[in-house]
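Sat 14:20. Reprocessing the chain from the morning session after the first attempt stalled halfway. Input below, unchanged.
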Amino acid sequence: MDPCDCSKSELLPMLPIWLHQVRLWLRVQGEDMRHQLLRQGQTLHREVEFDG
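Finished this time. Tokens:
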């Protein structure tokens, strides 16, 4: 038997778990970026108010 086939069959059950981890990580990253953008938007808004 080809060792390559063996490693593939071992990795396949791990795939859904790995995808789930990646999806969770991406969601955390996305929320992080959204918070940063909101913070930047608020500071920009304050600066505009000061100028006016």
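The mean pLDDT is 82.
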